[in-house]
Amino acid sequence: MTEWLKWTAPAAVVMTMAAPACATQYMSVGEAQKSAFPSATNFTEVQPGRVWKAQAGERVVGYFYYDHVVGKHLLIDYAVAVEADGRVRKVEILNYRESYGGEVQQSGWLQQFAGKTNSSELKVNGDIRNISGATLSSTHVTEGVKKVLAYHASHFR
Amino acid sequence: MQATSANIRRARPLLGTFVDIDVDDVDEWHAEGAIEAAFAAVSDVHRLMSFHEADSDVSRLNRGASSAAVSVHPWTYEVLEMAADMNRRSAGAFDIGIAPTLQQLGQLPCDGEAQAMSTSCIAMADAIELLGDNRVRFTHASVKVDLGGIAKGFAVDRAIDALRRHGARSALVNAGGDLSAFGPETRTIHIRDPRSPDRLICEVDVSNQALASTGRRFDPFHSAAAAGSAVIEPTTRTPAHAVHGATVRASCCMIADALTKIVMIAGVEAAAPLAHYRASAIFVSADGDVRATSDWQGVRHNAS
């Protein structure tokens, strides 16, 4: 029969594990473009750093959007690949960061990440690769995708 | 494409959270295909078991299973069978029939008729008939199911299956804290303190098993403080309050996911179902005590 014991975390662990901030780079913009449109031969920037037109030769195969969701404690870079007919082909998270510590209160802490795709930010507590706990909501990314699609419909359809 | 042994990690917004798939020790060409198959499996589970999507098995059951038997996908049936077993083993603490209560509390959308019938309270064991052959019938018109307490874990298990089938030798799938890993590597998982999300309560090593956590909800966009629980006590039909948060380790993620709900509701009483499913657990009770099962990793060293 299972019995319960009182758990006391080792003091050293608590010390080093307070206020976790972590960042994960999943893909670069270039990798995400290639993965979303493997047949594309070139990506033309329609809006610098934000929107690309994917073409296989002369044929437009779709559009690639790179966008960010900025929340109070969270900054996520994501990409939406839209088919030539306007349907979503793929939504990928490119960079994911989270922090619940005091540092996000300081202005500039979040800004240092904005739009960056280099891997230097992985130094932010890079030893934390996987966290389990209360579920994080992806609602803000979902809303971001809707905005991207509304933009796409009004500009490229 | 050159065949190099690599680590590939991808994340997509699915199941209302972020699903993160990390594949090691597989050549790049195969990893991309394996990851696509794993995300596809998660999408399939989402499509079948979402309460919100009108075409899902869950919505079809909630619309029609009280008037006639409804045929569902074998995956949905498998989850319903496990839910029924969990319900029996936990003396009713695990209950997928609490959807009307979640609707009342505003955690699930209402369809207009929800308020009218929400006072009725039928034990899940009597309300849902699993007829075999993937057919399901509800015994009463007011029965509505929500698989939110178990489907995420099942989705993780299906993603793991897909990765194995496509030749991955080592991988981890993490759906917003419900995770499972296989392969020769041991992976360290940090568990967030449910009382204050800016702290970690412990770290555990996971190898060829699953880990799931449930806490009071917190919305990192609005507040770092934990909000009310999304876990409902079937007996009182109010949010569970005895436990701040729970983490369960088990052989598969569906079992781990469902058991976290039982620990949230039953606290120390969850010992029997945990033992039955050969699972271990750690939880933070409302009075601040942290308790772990005697087989929780490291507990012998830290017990006081």
CATH class of one domain in chain B: Alpha Beta
As for the number of domains of chain A, it is 1
User: Which strand-content bin applies to the residues of chain A?
Assistant: 35-45%
Q: Provide the CATH superfamily of one domain in chain B.
A: ApbE-like domains
Number of E strands of chain A:
8
Number of strands of chain B: 15
Which oligomeric state applies?
heterodimer
Q: What global shape of chain A is seen?
A: elongated
Mean pLDDT of chain A: 75
Instruction: Count up the helices of chain A.
Output: 3
User: What share of the residues of chain B does DSSP label as strand, in percent?
Assistant: 25-35%
Q: Please list the strands of the largest sheet of chain A in the order they lie side by side.
A: 2-7-6-5-4-3
Helix content of chain A: 10-25%
Low-pLDDT stretches of chain A? 101-126
CATH architecture of one domain in chain B: Roll
Q: Sketch the topology of chain B as an H/E string, one letter per element.
A: EEHHEHHHHEEHEEEEEEEEHHEEH
Main beta sheet strand tally, sense and closure of chain B: 8 strands, antiparallel
> Helix coverage percent of residues of chain B?
25-40%
Structural class of chain B: alpha+beta
Question: Any idea what the radius of gyration of chain A is?
Answer: 19 Å
Largest interface: A-B, 50 and 70 residues
Outline the structure in words:
With 157 residues, chain A is α+β, with helices and mostly antiparallel strands. Helix content of chain A is 21%, strand content 36%. Chain A is built from three helices and eight strands; from the N terminus they run βαβαββββββα. A six-stranded antiparallel sheet of chain A has the order 2-7-6-5-4-3, with helices on both faces. The longest helix of chain A is centred in the C-terminal third of the chain and has 18 residues. Chain A is elongated and about 65 Å long. The N and C termini of chain A lie far apart (64 Å). Chain B is α+β, with helices and mostly antiparallel strands and 304 residues long. Among the domains of chain B are: 82 residues, T-fold, CATH 1.10.3980; 119 residues, T-fold (Roll), CATH 3.10.520.10. Helices cover 33% and strands 28% of the residues of chain B. Chain B has ten helices and 15 strands. In chain B, the strands form four sheets. Chain B has an eight-stranded antiparallel sheet with strand order 1-2-6-7-10-13-14-15. Chain B has a three-stranded antiparallel sheet with strand order 3-5-4. In chain B, a hairpin with a 7-residue loop joins strand 8 and strand 9. In chain B, helix 3 runs parallel beside helix 8. Classes of the chains: A alpha+beta (157), B alpha+beta (304). At the A-B interface, strand 1, helix 1, strand 7, strand 8 and helix 3 of A face strand 1, strand 2, strand 8, strand 9 and strand 10 of B. Strand 8 of chain A pairs parallel with strand 8 of chain B, so a sheet runs across the interface.
